[in-house]
Specification:
Layout (H helix, E strand, L loop, with lengths): L3 E3 L4 E6 L6 E4 L3 H4 L1 E5 L23 E2 L12 E4 L4 E7 L2 E6 L3 E6 L3 E10 L16 E11 L2
């Protein structure tokens, strides 16, 4: 992963375990459970449901959903051993604006500052939906980068 990309350049998203113990990650849809994406806007966006929801869910300020962060019905946890690196997915610099068990419609991002925030647990099942988090079991990582105009 780099500190700077050109607009439209694919962004390889990967992780490396620099600790002395195992951490777990979702190998099928890490963009759903482990990673959150943010731009520098602080705009509060609604979750991009394709159809109106009975209760609208809002994302955190500046957060957006990547197409690779939709269709989150499969949970496949894998251990990331000390020193191990894993390529998770390639982000095509798009924001999902319509999700229905997979991104149906997306828009390209603009140039600017971006942040990927990840949460990984040293306990299997520690980041799964509805999981109770044990104190001290989750570590947070942050990676910021710039997308430059062409």
């Amino acid at each position: 992963m780099k500190d700077e990309y050109r607009l439209g350049e694919p962004v390889e998203i990967g992780i490396r375990n620099g600790s002395d113990g195992d951490y777990y990650y979702q190998s099928t849809y890490p963009g759903c459970f482990n990673l959150k994406f943010f731009d520098g806007s602080n705009v509060i966006r609604p979750y991009p449901n394709a159809e109106p929801a009975r209760t609208q869910i809002y994302l955190l300020p500046g957060q957006f959903v990547v197409p690779e962060g939709t269709h989150c019905d499969l949970i496949a946890e894998q251990p990331l051993e000390p020193g191990q690196s894993v390529a998770l997915f390639t982000w095509g610099q798009h924001i999902c604006i319509k999700d229905r068990w997979g991104c149906m419609e997306s828009l390209p991002v603009e140039s600017g500052e971006y942040l990927v925030q990840g949460e990984f647990s040293n306990v299997k099942g520690g980041i799964s939906p509805g999981s109770a988090r044990e104190p001290g079991s989750v570590t947070t990582i942050k990676w910021s980068f710039t997308i430059q105009p062409n």
